[in-house]
Design goal:
Elements: E1 2-6, H1 17-27, H2 34-43, E2 49-53, E3 77-86, E4 97-104, H3 113-129, E5 133-139, H4 143-152, E6 156-161, E7 171-177, H5 185-211, H6 234-238, H7 252-255, H8 260-263
Parallel strand pairs: 4-5
Antiparallel strand pairs: 1-2, 2-3, 3-4, 5-7, 6-7
Bound molecules: coenzyme A (COA).
Length: about 260
Amino acid sequence: MVDILPLSSFPSYIHLLPAIQTCNITNLPENYFLKYYLYHALTWPQLSFVAVVRPKNGYRQHKPGSVSSGGPEEYPKVVGYVLAKMEEEPADGIPHGHITSLSVMRTHRRLGIAERLMRMSQRAMAESHRAHYVSLHVRVSNTAALHLYRDTLGFQVDKVESKYYADGEDAYAMRCDLKHMWLNWDDDDDDTATAAKKEDGDKSTRQQEKSDGGDEHPDEGDPVGDLGKKDDGDDKEKQKKIKVKIGRPLGVGDLVEKNEAAAR
Ligand SMILES: CC(C)(COP(=O)(O)OP(=O)(O)OC[C@H]1O[C@@H](n2cnc3c(N)ncnc32)[C@H](O)[C@@H]1OP(=O)(O)O)[C@@H](O)C(=O)NCCC(=O)NCCS
């Protein structure tokens, strides 16, 4: 029995990254450093999935702080993966997902594993990130993958990219629309607004009870320490705002070690 697991959610299957890398090296000439897999898993934890053979005695739980023997009995066998991301700086300005790599071990092909991996990743792109579409590249000679993308999953060829691969082969740049999979976030917003209104209502009832001489909620004690105290007047000027770099600008480039001695 083969299970499809999210690579990095809770509980995390991030310890399977080396086996995923092995699966990639075995099946494809396009290979990546381990930290690139880790970067995907940490940055877009919902989008990458791994196919594993279900262990006979179930999955072993790693206790925090326990030392792993690293033996084969500890990890389920990886037979496929999809490594996916959101395009960080889309040239067309449209938020979309991208399939970085997909492969299934020969022993487990034609069982529908690649299709399931792809569909799960595409759904996550649409639901978690509102991706408009998903893109990928495939070698023009890769008949199996072309069938999978075009005939099974409904991708269309966007353009041919000449000599895209290191050995000079052309690539089909393909894409598939995902907007029909979007969740209606307005409903969520409405739910959140209703919950917030209810909470405001509860709060004002509690305040009213308090001013009427009623007991305060037993959990609400006196403030402890300075953190969280409301500042007024001069205290506000003492506060310093610090700008912190977040989000898209923090791309792969910022994760690469630089030789700072050279800049001096
Ligand atoms: C391409 C690959 C990922 C397909 O994996 P898979 O798990 O065997 O694919 P699935 O069983 O989910 O097949 C789904 C569909 O893909 C197509 N397909 C898969 N293998 C095929 C093959 N050898 N020939 C023709 N079509 C094929 C079929 O349309 C199939 O649907 P069907 O079984 O109903 O006919 C796998 O062959 C592989 O790992 N290849 C090497 C790595 C690779 O090329 N990765 C893609 C890089 S872009």
